[in-house]
Design brief:
Largest sheet: 9 strands, mixed
Structural class: alpha/beta
């Protein structure tokens, strides 16, 4: 591995990206390329169509057919955006080679695997972070601000929905029922909503869940409900679904003083899919006033109740800016493997709860895990 440039050096940090599917092409490649101090050096994909796409979108990028071609290259960071089953082995190889690594969520299939990766990174002093971009969603940033300012009073219940209407299966590993693929919505969208709640309200101590495969031919969950009790008493309810014919509010947060209701998804994913890029000059992550959430009490936002609250701009570029800063200064990762492990504690508990029809208690995190 090359030595990261000093803070005063203009030399960018070279990034190797493994995988050029949805995660790699829509999220990681554009965000890496848009980050000062980072350059997309190599894309790993064996698919000729994706190789051509990567060359067209990033003419200076090098292409590798397999991840094995990366380890002898002079890279400062490897990003693992390949299928879930590859996350642990690829991250392990990178860490053992002393190469800093970012892994798309979920970091692993189990909390134990995630903690083993965290321990490996800690022992070797090698940077490891998990890509949880939804911490930089516009609604999440707005809710964080409300909580800091105390506008809602003491939060009692947090409802979070990540719902879609996709009545037909699309195929691929994400919908596979094979355990090694780590497919299904519980580990996909569930990773996002659980992580957000843990950041907002702290560790979980109790989990109940219902997971269903609703669509004809579905092999894994496509309609899931999770109830979490946090150590501080806040109760979180999560709904993740591909079968929601009518979409509920993205957030509904009920406090002792007021509530916050927000509909609609953050616009950044849609913008990235359309080929728009954060350039630091044009507005990014903003939404029009008619999509703002409302804060108030006693009335439905759908009937005009509450006060419209401007939504903070979403800021996915902040993740890789924080990664670049951490690599140059030795600072903390913006999302740690220990945090990812506790998220997996909740997801594993949810799977057990649904399978056995029980409420699952989560023990305190192991000493030294934070």
């Amino acid at each position: 591995m090359s030595n990261p440039a000093s803070p005063s050096s203009p030399a960018p940090l070279r990034v190797g990206l493994i995988g050029y599917g949805l995660a790699g092409s829509v999220f990681h490649a554009p965000l890496v390329a848009a980050t000062d101090g980072l350059v997309l050096d190599t894309v790993v994909t064996s698919d000729p169509t994706r190789q051509a796409q990567a060359r067209a979108e990033f003419p200076d990028v090098r292409i590798a057919a397999t991840a094995d071609e990366l380890w002898d290259r002079d890279l400062d960071l490897v990003v693992v955006a390949s299928p879930n089953r590859t996350h642990v082995p690829l991250a392990t190889t990178a860490l053992e080679a002393g190469i800093p690594v970012v892994v798309d969520k979920p970091l692993a299939a189990t909390a134990a695997e995630a903690r083993a990766l965290a321990a490996l990174a800690d022992r070797s002093g090698t940077f490891l972070s998990v890509f949880q971009n939804r911490r930089w969603d516009n609604d999440f940033l707005t809710l964080q601000r409300l909580l800091v300012e105390g506008e809602l009073g003491e939060v009692q219940r947090f409802e979070s929905r990540f719902e879609r209407w996709r009545p037909q299966l699309k195929g691929g590993w994400r919908e596979s029922g094979a355990p090694e693929e780590i497919g299904g919505l519980l580990y996909d969208l569930g990773s996002h909503v659980v992580d957000q709640a843990l950041v907002l309200f702290g560790p979980a101590v109790r989990v109940y869940a219902e997971t269903d495969a609703r669509r004809p031919g579905a092999e894994t969950d496509d309609d899931t409900f999770i109830a979490v009790t946090h150590a501080n008493g806040v109760r979180s309810h999560f709904y993740v679904s591909a079968t929601a014919a009518q979409l509920g509010p993205r957030f509904r947060v009920l406090g002792s003083r007021a509530g916050y209701v927000k509909y609609g998804l953050d616009p950044q994913e849609g913008a990235l899919r359309e080929g728009l890029r954060p350039d630091g000059e044009t507005p990014w992550g903003e939404e029009p006033p008619h999509l703002w959430g409302r804060v108030g009490s006693g009335e439905s936002p759908l009937t005009g109740g509450g006060t419209p609250l401007p939504t903070e701009p979403g800021d996915y570029p902040a993740y890789y800016a924080a990664v670049a800063a951490a690599l140059r200064t030795g600072g903390p990762a913006p999302v740690t493997a220990h945090e990812a492990a506790h998220c997996l504690d909740v997801l594993e508990a949810a799977r057990k709860s649904s399978r056995e029809g029980v409420v699952v208690e989560i023990p305190a995190a192991p000493t030294g895990s934070e």
